[in-house]
Amino acid sequence: MTETSSIEEVYSDEIDLNSIFTVLWKRRKLIVFGTLGATLLSIGISLLLPRVYRSEGFFQLGNPRKTIVNNEKTTKRDKAIKSTTSKNTSFIGIPVPIYKSSSSQFFNPNRFQFIASQYKLFKEEDLKQIREYFRKAEDINEWIKPVYAFAKEDTREFAQLPQDESNSVIGLKLAYEADSPENAYTYVCFFGNYIRDCLLYVTLYNYVMDGYSNKISELSKNENDIINLNFELLQNTNKLKDIRAILSNYPESAKIENRQLVSIEEGGDRFLAPVTQLVGIESTLADLRQDLSELEREREKLTVRTEYFSRIYSELDKIGERGESLFLLLKSAKDEVFKNKDLNQDALKEVFNNLSIDLQTFDFIFFSNSRFVSGPTIPSMHIKPKKGLIAIVSCFSSFFLLVILSFILHWWQKNKKMIMSKS
Length: 423
Description:
The protein is α+β, with helices and mostly antiparallel strands. The protein has two domains: 48-199, 2-Layer Sandwich (Bacterial polysaccharide co-polymerase-like), CATH 3.30.1890; 210-369, no CATH class. The protein has 14 helices and five strands. Strands 1, 2, 3, 4 and 5 form a five-stranded antiparallel β-sheet that branches. The chain is rod-shaped, with a radius of gyration of 42 Å.
């Protein structure tokens, strides 16, 4: 192989830039005007596309667990909850387990569509769109995102969180995209009200069911305790009469020395002097009467609370699964139960006050503390379509396509005769 042939072979493998620029220059009008026309066309089409506006908001959540203690008797667990409450007076954030158990309510499409139909925010056309757009839990979950008190980044930053701190959901990021600023704003407002209503319903439902079952069982136990105390009172009263009869039959027994040796076994008290036994029985009777008085007072309170929760329980199926309706039912039931009762009685007044405190606490948590602290925004600019991005993408894509088309046309003109002759 000669040196000349090797040089020709090398040059045959190289790209001929002159021929490329020649082809592009020859087709310059096609490339320039074609790119310009495609760009203008894409801009025109983008002007005809429907505009999309995005509204956003942050909905703060209150914590019902730290404020409501259903039982009037204070247990160690209740004291722990109350001590936690005193440290955290803002009641912000729902513990993650409670949020997860309640979130099934948020992302239930049937419940979502039902609550939407109950509000006066939407027209019939909007309700049809809601039934079409929100068919699955994922369709709702797309617009509702929990915000945790301690994210993964916080854990890495602080290395180790204090032991008394537990993670919670402090709020929700809400957003929606619609064809107008007003519609986007309306949907985000509805999301906030919907979340509040779901949490309110779950909390009040548990409150009613716990109160209904607990008070019925506590009332039954209270009645049994009263029965047993009355029996003990009767037994000790009869014993008192018998001892007095013994004293009347044996007058000298009253002079027996009180300091004497007796058996410590069960029934050893029988060997005490009758007068000493009388004092012991009367002391026991005094304690039993005091216990009975406390139980009877507790029965009055339990009877009223049982009436209150039973009235609500019987109406649960009639109001549907709406938190606000259940809250109004709790208020009206309290008014009905105490309408003809004498609130000058301490026991009734105490129950009335406790129920009022519970309702005020629910009102504070769900209507004062669970609220939008940011937004919902009313967007002034649309986010879709992005005309600038569309124009740039259209310009570059049409330019490259037309360059490729230019080379295809050049190749076709160059080889057209040969292809036609073979055919």
